[in-house]
Amino acid sequence: xxxxxxxxxxxxxxxxxxxxxxxxxxxxxxxxxxxxxxxxxxxxxxxxxxxxxxxxxxxxxxxxxxxxxxxxxxxxxxxxxxxxxxxxxxxxxxxxxxxxxxxxxxxxxxxxxxxxxxxxxxxxxxxxxxxxxxxxxxxxxxxxxxxxxxxxxxxxxxxxxxxxxxxxxxxxxxxxxxxxxxxxxxxxxxxxxxxxxxxxxxxxxxxxxxxxxxxxxxxxxxxxxxxxxxxxxxxxxxxxxxxxxxxxxxxxxxxxxxxxxxxxxxxxxxxxxxxxxxxxxxxxxxxxxxxxxxxxxxxxxxxxxxxxxxxxxxxxxxxxxxxxxxxxxxxxxxxxxxxxxxxxxxxxxxxxxxxxxxxxxxxxxxxxxxxxxxxxxxxxxxxxxxxxxxxxxxxxxxxxxxxxxxxxxxxxxxxxxxxxxxxxxxxxxxxxxxxxxxxxxxxxxxxxxxxxxxxxxxxxxxxxxxxxxxxxxxxxxxxxxxxxxxxxxxxxxxxxxxxxxxxxxxxxxxxxxxxxxxxxxxxxxxxxxxxxxxxxxxxxxxxxxxxxxxxxxxxxxxxxxxxxxxxxxxxxxxx
Length: 575
Fold this sequence. Notes:
Blueprint: E1 10-12, E2 15-17, H1 31-34, H2 40-46, E3 51-55, E4 60-62, E5 71-76, E6 79-84, E7 90-96, E8 101-102, E9 116-119, E10 123-128, H3 130-139, H4 141-161, E11 167-170, H5 175-186, E12 192-195, H6 199-207, E13 217-219, E14 225-227, H7 231-237, E15 249-255, H8 259-270, E16 275-278, H9 305-318, E17 322-324, E18 329-333, E19 339-343, E20 348-356, E21 360-362, E22 378-379, H10 384-389, E23 394-398, H11 402-412, E24 417-421, H12 433-440, E25 445-448, E26 453-459, E27 462-468, E28 478-480, E29 484-486, E30 490-492, E31 531-533, H13 545-574
Parallel strand pairs: 11-12, 15-16, 15-20, 16-17, 20-31, 22-29, 23-24, 23-29, 24-25
Antiparallel strand pairs: 1-2, 3-10, 4-9, 5-8, 5-10, 6-7, 6-9, 11-13, 13-14, 18-19, 19-20, 21-30, 26-27, 27-28
Helix pairs in contact: 3-4, 8-9, 8-13, 11-12
Protein name: FAD-dependent oxidoreductase
Organism: Paraburkholderia panacisoli
InterPro entries: cNMP-bd_dom, cNMP-bd_dom_sf, FAD/NAD-bd_sf, FAD/NAD-binding_dom, Ferredoxin-NADP_redctase_2, RmlC-like_jellyroll
């Protein structure tokens, strides 16, 4: 989803240009885009997508934490938009009258409302449900573009304010709190954090009789309290998980919401196929954790992985794709068609075709005691959450690929010093030239070739020191640091396929290009008919965002061929 470090598309002389990573203070200059007034002629064009409704003064049109009914186009009366969080604090956001519309990007998929909307007087409005809103944005191109831009900017503004989201209370260095913050940030969900030593936090901890084992404490928008929750528990409380219909048969089920999976969802849904995307963490996959991608076509100033994933996520929803995050797929059952995906939560998804876009999982070096430092000094990506933790401190980063390079550049703008450990003599064989040149220009980045981590040492607060396998030429054998970033590669996330018989290579990547009968088949087809593999999980794939997106587009053409052939066979049998 969208991050508070990105600015959405803006139009200049009829051409769309993209500006990334600009500060959100620019939102104050874009109020006309965030809250455009519709003309009577434009409202007339919208009427076919919804129905007229009436609300009395004092009545709520929508309420924080409750499923949003869609977009309201005000015809008469005024509505107050305000935030009321889980502890009863109320903040006025805006007031709107006739000609304005009320919604934000979550209403494309009927997500819970993030704010309250109350009628200040008798209100007459056109209510456009999520299905109608998606149809409107597609059918009314120019008007739909203006509405979509407004919906995105409104979500961005809510994220900036922390409006409508949960309140997280805990210690900023607590691993669980860091994980929950990361989950909410990468999913573009507003939230606020209160340090457990803060006066307000102490009052709330006492009010809810919270013990140390209950921390972090999470107060959801509806006032319910979660004690030391997991991410699925938090997602359930926030209404992020859609209702999954076990009986519905999709045309395409995509496992993984990285660039490859989201590209498949956009192309398949835009061509009328019924699509669901499942991911256990957040949109974007590994690419979503990249602080800045500068060599992706069409973004000359660069774009963060989270911003790119956020736009693709919204685009997939625009065309009607269902997205379920966080949902963990445990097995693929393909003994008979349609195929079944079994979920950790106990449900299942049924689909005529399956696209494996599950990418890779971060590789964990063989270091004694590494697990106990997860979120307590050891990190596998560099997001604003981690950057804030290590501000003006020394950090150590291990890795020499492009993901490592992007993280080095990003962390250098926050940390006092960044020590980089690489096993090779240099970056040239594994990193793009533009990143190498950028790193060389950074005065607070120190690259240590032919070096490896040998041990981790702790104190009562967590990680305290990173020891080396052998001393550096200057005799240094360790770094005193509380922050270690590991970018040491990734292994394919394909264990869930072993129940199906999809053929993997010796390293666990999915083999494609050969049909089950040994006859050459489509490049992206696996050894099981109707099951395809794309992106980093596929053997022989190019580990680049552009390549993953290309495979996502290509696989849809192959799916169309298979579904068309199956439909033809069904007609023939029926005859």
